[in-house]
Design a protein that fits this description.
mainly beta; Jelly Rolls; nine-stranded antiparallel beta sheet; eight-stranded antiparallel beta sheet
Length: 260
Amino acid sequence: MKAYFLAVVLLTLLLPTAFAQTTSPYYHKITNLQQQKGWNGYALLSPSWSICSSCSPTGSTVNWSRTPGISSPSVSGSSTRHHIGGTRPFSDILWNNHIIGNFSSQGIYDTSHTLVPNLHHFVYDVYFFAKNIGASQALEFDINQFTGGKSFIWGHECRIAGGHEWDTYDNVHKKWVSTGIPCNPVNNAWNHLIIEVARTSGNQLLFKTITLNGDTHNLSITRSPNSTSWHAVTINYQEDGNQTQAGYSIWLDRLNFTYW
C-alpha cells in the first residue's frame, strides 16, 4: 500500500499540467486551426513595424499569401502554406486569429465575461515546414489574452537569419528579450513546436516552456502586463523578412490550441 501511495504522489508531481487539464471545467482544445476560418494577414513595414493599412497582398513593397488545403508537404493531409516576399528589407507579415471574445472565429464571444477571466493556462502546439528556412529573419508564435483591462502578450520569436535564438516579448517596454536558448529548426523537414504559458493568480505573465523537436527548455520568466480595453483570447503567427526581403514559404500543420 505504501508503494502504491508513493507512486500516486510521484505521478501527481510529474504530471501537474495533465491533472489541471482534466479537472478544469474550462479545459478546451481546438485542433487543426491551420484549416479553419478567421485568419487575417497584416503587413508590418520596417523600421516602425506598425500595421500598414495601404499595403496589398499583391503589392511590390511587401506581399503575402495564405493557402490552406495543401496535401504535400503535410502531416495531417491538409497543411497551410504561408508566403512572404517583396522589396522592403526586414518587413513582416502577421497572421492573427481571434479564438474567444471580440470577433471570435469559433463563435465563442463570451459577452457575459464568464470565460476569458477564468482562463490561466495556454498551449500553442504546431508543426512547421520550410524548404529554405535560412531566408527567414525570424518566425513568431504568440498567445494573447485581454481581460480585466490588462493585455497579456506571450510573444515567442525564433530568430533564424537573426541569430538562431529564442526571444520573448516584454509587454511593458515593447521589446524583445533574448533567452539564450538556441533555435535551430530543420530545413526540408517537419519541426514540432510546443509553447506553454500561464497567467498567474497575481495577473503576471509566466513564460513556462518551449519545446522544439522534443527538446524542452524551462523558461520560468515572469513579466507584467500592459493595459487594454479588449476582451479576448487570440493567437498570432508571423513571418519576418530578411535584409533583402527574400521570398520564402512556411507550411503549418496540426496547429492545436489548448486553454483552461
